[in-house]
## 1
Amino acid sequence: MFKELDPLLHSQLRLAVVSLLLSVEEADFVFIREKTGSTAGNLSVQLDKLNEAGYIEVRKFIDGKKPRTVCKITKAGIAAFDAYVKVLQEYIKR
Amino acid sequence: MMETNFNEKESLRVINEMIAQAQNNFQKGVADPSIFSGYVVAFTAIANFLLLNLLENPILSFHVWWLMIPMVFVSRYIGRKNAIKAQVRTQLERLISTVWTAHLFACITILLVIWSGNRIFNTSYLSVLITPTILIFTGMAQFISAKAIRFKAYYYGSFAYWLGALGCMAVCSVNMWHYQFLILAACSILGLAVPGHILNKKAKEHV
């Protein structure tokens, strides 16, 4: 079941992150954590996986004295999400 | 949110939920540039109106409008500072920012067109069109912003601007053209500053 679905996106938190980033231009780590209701540790691991796959861009910088992490979806991420939704639609039609 | 195996219906639920979460995220202080610009324009318009009546050479009163140049820079600086601090930046915010940039260029262009017209036809009458035209442009930019963020107060603001534009011509018809500046001041407060305060309040409640 769900063999054709992108395994990287077929995870509740990673799919939530990509869906969220798809609707905004870029979002802060804190915003993503609050909206997905995940823990910082888990989110950090999943963001790394998405970043390694080239689905998102992660930018880390210092804002005043606070370190910040800002994420943005990439073209590859949008294409992967698009493909994921298409496969998902096929499953639903069955 | 836990990492669990989930089915296609749950996948759809997650996607819908996250897209809904991303909508209507007003950042704290999102309307600060509007509020600042609204008050500065109102102050400048009132100053122009007073100086027109006080100065021996009333033409000099129009120099108060040079204040608009630093106002644009300060307003942009406030917007940029808030954007850096913001937890999220949306495509809508970029669209709205582009609309207001277009508004700025449209205002500069209309000033050049009217000044050129005055010189070409050797008149100063065309100048009475400056304020109503700028009010119409501002109302349009505000209306697009209202539509983009689905914010009613901005809709009302845009209508305040358009009514103000008609009011400007009404005062001209009774030879009281200088009252245009008071109309401009009222529109800037009612159409820009007040809706800005309401939006900031809404953003504060949201955060």
## 2
Amino acid sequence: MSTSNLTPKQRMQIARQEMPAQDPAVRRNNFGEVNLGMEAELAKLEAERCLQCRDPKCMKGCPVNVNIPRFLDLLTAGDMAGAANSLLSDNALPAVTGRVCPQETQCECECVRANRGSPVGIGYLERFVADWARSNQDAITLVNAAPKGKKVAVVGSGPAGLTAAGQLARRGYDVTVFEALHRAGGVLVYGIPEFRLPKKIVDQEVERLVQAGVKIECNVVVGRTYTVPELREQFDAIFIANGAGLPMFMNIPGEHYKGSYTANEYLTRVNLMAAYDPDSDTPIIKPRRVAVVGGGNVAMDAARTAQRMGAERVSIVYRRTKAEMPARAEEVHHAEEEGVAFDLLCAPVEIVANEKKWVTGLKCVRMELGAPDASGRRSPVAIPGSEFIIECDVVVSALGTRANPLLTQTCPDMKLDKRGNIVVDEKLMTSIPGVFAGGDIVRGAATVILAMGDGKRAAAAIDDYLMAKA
Amino acid sequence: MHTIVAKAQLSPNVTRLDVSAPRIAQIRKAGQFVIVRRGEGAERIPLTIADSDAAAGTISLVIQAVGKSTKELVALAVGDSIKDIAGPLGHPTELIEKGHAVCVGGGVGTAVVHPIAQALSKIGVHVTSVIGGRSKEWVIYEPELRNIGDVVVCTDDGSYGRKGFVTQATEDLLKAGGVDIVYAVGPVMMMKALAELTRPYGVKTIVSLNPLMVDGTGMCGGCRVSVDGKAYFACVDGPEFDGHLVDFGQLADRGTTYREFEQEAAKRCADGDCRIGLSNKG
Ligand SMILES: Cc1cc2nc3c(=O)[nH]c(=O)nc-3n(C[C@H](O)[C@H](O)[C@H](O)COP(=O)(O)OP(=O)(O)OC[C@H]3O[C@@H](n4cnc5c(N)ncnc54)[C@H](O)[C@@H]3O)c2cc1C
Ligand SMILES: Cc1cc2nc3c(=O)[nH]c(=O)nc-3n(C[C@H](O)[C@H](O)[C@H](O)COP(=O)(O)OP(=O)(O)OC[C@H]3O[C@@H](n4cnc5c(N)ncnc54)[C@H](O)[C@@H]3O)c2cc1C
Ligand code: SF4
Ligand code: SF4
Ligand code: FES
């Protein structure tokens, strides 16, 4: 039941509130967050746009079923603690998802108000409530169950691993997270840039898990430092969430030249290794012109990062048109505002270099959209003789990633599909009893919230599995 | 945190640090390396595990001070600690089971070849080590390798051992015959020369590649090398490969990515145009 006295008609009259953002001309030169967050007044007004549907379609669009009308209702009523506890009981990392979920294809796309005007700004409000919770930790009342005396290992500290660890700790398990890198967070710290997701937020979420009793061991590369069978001997169950970190290449001539980066390397140097900070030790090429190949979030992040590292011209090179780009709509929009150019309907054929093997350009061929394929997408076809060169001193390939075989190679009994992803049953258990998996290592490169959804489901499944055995 | 329990100066710019890392000391094998990050804000750099003491829980890192990260590491004292050490990484060396192996080490590469020689001798393979340095004071790991097998020392100036390069001494061994395999670790051009030397003799030659690395887990792709025309990641597929199939030219080119920038940056800054503000102030 709604606690506010506005009638649906009055609610319908409120227009969607805009997210205040840094001026594009200013922000393209800094790593500060682009979206500035809403003031309380604005957030309440936006929350009042929610019609409190009896059959909330928005929830069906959310992979973890956040009870959206409930937290929005508490927000309109001014009960921030209530809203925060409601949100956090459904979603372990709302400060993250509020910022990085592709809302336009998930919750907001299903919102009934989407058909008539614009949907409720669920992502912005989720961020608002989560940020309130971050500075009001005392108001969060979620508690751990009594210790169950069983140990669970989690491999990987990305969103899937962190969510599973939090849920398992709350269910009373003794949880240890093993992370290969020196810092926890997965793609949230090495991939997604500071201006979209401040690292401080991830660190706070990790700290909250540590407070809840989760142990985090960094610099442990499972498959090398310990194998899965070795961990199996020490832990009652294992959740594998090592992501899909293996970069794919274009397989065109010249990819080895100096100035040719994968997006993973480029973003890792800038984010995890803090090359954007002049005081860090990490070297990075500071180019004048950059061509970023790809059309997803990773490509947008690399392009906008290059822009902020001082490049004069940055372009996105994509085989199709803007309409087919898989990136979040807001990221494409922000990139455009910041002056990133779009070389659309272009496919790279070769990276060219000077005699000292430094990249000087990206040779592309122009494409046109042909007949729709089986999936309904019109597939691009090359226009013969249309080759041309995009001048640049750095090429970043952001073609996507696949399963990294490092862990699975040392676990020959585990069933994989032909792309190297781990095969799981409906309870997310792998072919090895007691070993579960989720996130990108199962799905292939997907989204933060799907990885978190897997973490949550796996924690429940591990609980069932261990309780049935007890 | 990994405490430094012992330190020794091996040559004018090579230092050995014995560092506590119990799990790695227990399971590491010849040919494997670790990724080390000295502290907050420092780079992640790869270093070979030159030796280990499982009982004491320590590993030995032999470090040639070439740039900022390595200089800062060798400046640490006994009792200081290193924040992050991840490993053991990479595949263990492919060892022959019997016969005669020649282990060639150039400069700090001698420390990298040492665990290979050690592992071979442990399983009964006859090892001849060919090690070199500019002059006497640059020769390292000689006593350790003498304990394992025969040693030929070469110095560029003839101040100790044979005068000349490790390639010449290796060629003599190849001519004498009976060499089953060569393991070579050192500067790229040395490994390339050795691979060319052994090719006509048909003697398998394993080299340990040292491209720039970031994560060491196969995630960034920065360490890609071309072997037999295919791209491999040295951190997870290597670091050792068949030297007859490696594209050394590509490795040498990529290895200079930041070196040239460093020099260029210094030059441009002098010219008053600082657009390549390389943050590495080495
Ligand atoms: C640049 C970039 C931008 C993105 N933007 C968005 C976005 O805006 N919205 C969105 O929803 N999604 C986005 N994604 C996708 C999203 O980040 C991933 O789908 C999500 O992080 C997957 O979570 P995960 O927990 O499965 O794995 P990851 O986040 O990949 O975490 C896996 C962790 O496991 C560690 N690990 C790997 N191997 C081992 C091992 N052998 N031993 C121990 N630890 C290991 C890794 O170091 C890593 O920390 C983006 C991805 C990238 C790369
Ligand atoms: C698998 C592997 C094992 C290694 N083992 C050892 C070891 O046991 N002992 C040791 O001293 N070094 C070893 N190295 C090399 C070592 O990692 C580099 O010397 C180190 O990263 C340089 O860092 P820096 O900040 O001190 O120098 P930087 O300032 O980064 O570089 C200084 C100079 O050294 C060059 N350089 C940088 N990295 C390398 C590299 N990987 N190989 C060759 N030249 C480089 C640069 O181009 C530059 O000219 C190994 C490298 C790899 C990949
Ligand atoms: S978690 Fe993502 S999809 Fe779900 S409600 Fe929040 S923003 Fe929407
Ligand atoms: S569908 Fe839209 S209007 Fe209805 S409850 Fe969800 S957010 Fe509110
Ligand atoms: S060092 Fe990053 S993939 Fe090898």
